[in-house]
Amino acid sequence: MLTVLRHRTYRHLFGAQIIALVGTGLATVALGLLAFRVAGQNAGAVLGTALAIKMLAYVGVAPIAAAFTERLPRRAMLVSLDLVRCAVALCLPFVSAVWEIYILIFILQSASAAFTPSFQATIPDILPDERDYTDALSLSRVAYDMESVVSPLLAAALLTVIPFNVLFVGTAIGFLCSAMLVVSVVLPSPKPAKPRGIYERTTRGIRLYLATPRLRGLLAIDLAVAAAASIVLVNTVVYVQASFGLDQRATALALACFGGGSMLAAFGLPRILDRFADRTVMLAGASVLVAGSALAIFLHSYRWLLPIWILLGIGYSAAQTPTGRLLRRSAHPEDRPALFAAQFALSHVCWLIAYPLAGRVGAAYGLPVSASLLSLMTLSAAIGTSLVWPGHDPDTLAHDHDLLSKDDPHLQSDDGGQHTHPYVIDDTHTAWPRNQKK
């Protein structure tokens, strides 16, 4: 898996991702502790609302940003957005009111909503080999898990010598270092695309996404992931410090267990994906999430919380890591930025549903009720995935073009009105074939 790091450009981008995410992880721990200081027993509700605002920024900004950034130099855009995030992070230590948290989180995450899809869409352009890209996805999953493993452990150590709000300075340093690494490489420019109006460019990725059966299944997977992971990401601080009466370091350790489970799965996934289809692996991950979220309903002690969080981390990684492979095979290169932005926005609609449910229901009716509802949502989404994503899902499909003339250049061959090639939704193929040949 580490052989992909021989590519200099990817190596620098991966380093930028790691550094920025470690800083973000410090901010995640600090934000939870800040919410607890400001709101006490209602910290889950405050944090849930803050994370819901984050999701609103992701859902609203990502498609709009994709419509404009396909015409901008990627390196300049990514560096500028890193600097914006750095500036906002430097403001967070001075927060003293809940409304200030909400405003700064919206600005910070709006910049992230523009940054992340463009960053993700760049990776398949610099790693055209399928195995290299699969390894890169697993390494990327490991990098994201460092936010849940290394950052909380580092935060736990730092909290012994500094106030928690100083952790936000680490976030700012992470974004600054990320910008410096992006500057150090030359990135491919976006593929030239057909000129389109702003509305069409804004909505194109979502239309391509929802017209593809495997991606509708991915959206159901995203809902399962959001529902189960919200139990961890929203309510860990409430479980550990309010229910169990433990300290901040115990909260950081619990989050590290979740990330550790996810990292463990990510390291094994490249070999697993060589043997099993993406759909099989992702449904297996969703099943693990169903089991873990069900166990959380009966959670009454810290010593049981840690292994359940590890189990949820394993399911979280297995269900999410192959996402980039699905997106790559479901669009032409020029449509990838729009499709990655659509995935970013639609997946965060799922988080927008799950985060407030975890926080508000937990605060109003108790953690077992919140876990029960989220577990039921996870189960329903996993069942929905198996229904909307066909088990037979080849890249190459035989299909008709009733509206094209026989001499159209697209029709390379004709077999009773059908022809065959790798099929994705585009201007020529606007709907998925209903009758697929197996």
Automatic annotation (TrEMBL):
Report the locations given in the UniProt record.
Answer: Cell membrane
Cited Gene3D superfamilies: MFS general substrate transporter like domains
* Renumbered residue ranges of the record's region Disordered: 400-438
- Key words of the record: Cell membrane, Membrane, Transmembrane, Transmembrane helix
InterPro entries, alphabetized: MFS, MFS_trans_sf
Q: How does it sit in the membrane?
A: Multi-pass membrane protein
Stated name of the protein:
MFS transporter
Q: Which organism is it from?
A: Acetobacter indonesiensis
